[in-house]
Amino acid sequence: MACSSSFLHLLAALLALASWQAIASVPSPLQDFCVADLNSPVRVNGFVCKDPTNVTADDFFKAAMLDKPRDTMANKVGSNVTLINVMEIPGLNTLGISIVRVDYAPLGLNPPHTHPRATEIFTVVEGTLYAGFVTSNPDNKLFSKMLNKGDVFVFPKGLIHFQFNLNPHKPAVAISSLSGQNPGIITIANAAFKSKPPISDDILANAFQVDKKIIDMLQA
Length: 220
Ligand code: GLV
Ligand code: MN
Hints:
Blueprint: H1 2-23, E1 79-84, E2 98-104, E3 109-114, E4 120-126, E5 129-134, E6 142-147, E7 152-155, E8 160-165, E9 172-178, E10 186-187, H2 188-193, H3 201-208, H4 212-219
Antiparallel strand pairs: 1-2, 2-9, 3-8, 3-10, 4-7, 4-9, 5-6, 5-8
Helix pairs in contact: 3-4
Bound molecules: glyoxylic acid and manganese (II) ion (MN).
The site of glyoxylic acid has 7 residues, from β2.
Organism: Oryza meyeriana var. granulata
Domain Cupin type-1: 64-216
Main location: secreted
């Protein structure tokens, strides 16, 4: 009897642990680090660990990436996102964090997008930006702020957000941390109108309640 009750306790503890692991987005590290072996053929959720005896300081380092202004004229929205994730710094593997620099042209927009695997904490380092995020259905409430140099704003995980440089004369720059080694970016317009293969214009016309011609124009 005693034996079967301790077995049940053990089973309950294991189940609790397993369900906790299943809901946690980033498991707690089980060692000091697990530097990604980007060349391993083994597929796991994240990357397998490189042999720790071969790990060097360079696995946790990226040379002068974030101090340089980026070209904001290469696209029509006038912004440029430089993401440093686990592919750039293999030491980020399992640590649940990454960083991004965003450059905005005068009147540049970082268009509505979401990070499926991260919350974002955003700091303006140059200029003034209008930023916001929208809550999920049914409210779809917009939370927005004017942000000046040094201001910090949070975009909760999975919610659609954007930033717009309202200044027609000056560029702006922001640095963000994201709570994932590989946060992912889904740009709403691209997902809706530039999927491969395209979503049928019947479906999009119905979803957006507009004429199919407008959808064809947006897809083009
Ligand atoms: C800013 O929101 C970014 O993710 O680039
Ligand atoms: Mn973002």
